Amino acid sequence: MNARLDRIGLGRFAGTGERLARIITIASVSFGRSLLWLLAAIIVGCGAWMLLPLSKGNSAEPAKAELAAVEAVPSADAAAAVSPVSEAQAAAKSPVVAELGRLRISSQTWRRGGLGSRALVTFTLRNDNDYAVKDVEIVCAFARRDGSHLTDRSRVLADPVSMKSRKTFARVPVGFVNVNADQAKCSLVAARRA
C-alpha cells in the first residue's frame, strides 16, 4: 500500500523541476527584454531632452543688453520727429521713469535658502531723489569662486522707498541658483516714480 502512495506522490512532482526551469528561463528572457526596452527609452529620452532649447531664465549665459538698459527720456530732437498719435501712445504705455543716478544699493549680502537651491538677497536701497520710487528692478549676477559668471536673476520690488531715505530689504528671494554659485553682485536696472 505504501508503494502506491509513493508512486502517486512522485508522479505529481516528477515534471515539476523541468517546468520550474522552463518558467525561470522564460521569466529571465522577458526581464532581459524589458530591461533593454527601458534602457532604449532612457537613451532616446535623454537625447531628445538635450536637443530642446534652453529656457530664458535658466540659461548660464550673461544677461542681455535689454536687461541692463535703462529707459531714457527722449531728447527734444527725437520728440520733434515723433507724430502726436505715437507720442500719446508712448505716454500711455511708458510710466514715469525714476532717475537711477541718485538711487543705489549701499550694502548687500546673500545666502542660500530652500534646501540650498534658492538665493535670498539682503540689501539696503538708498534713494537720494526728491521723490519716492517704487517698482525697483534689480538684477543679481551669480559667479563661481574663481569669478566666472554662472547666471543672472532679476526681481521687481513693489515696495516704495521714500524720498531722501533708505530701506533695507531682507531675504528677498531672487530665484533658483546654480549649486556652484559662490558670489553675487546685484545692481539696479529700472525704477518708477511713486
UniProtKB/TrEMBL annotation:
It comes from the Bacteria. The chain crosses the membrane at residues 35-54. Keywords: Membrane, Transmembrane, Transmembrane helix. This is DUF3426 domain-containing protein. It comes from Bradyrhizobium symbiodeficiens.
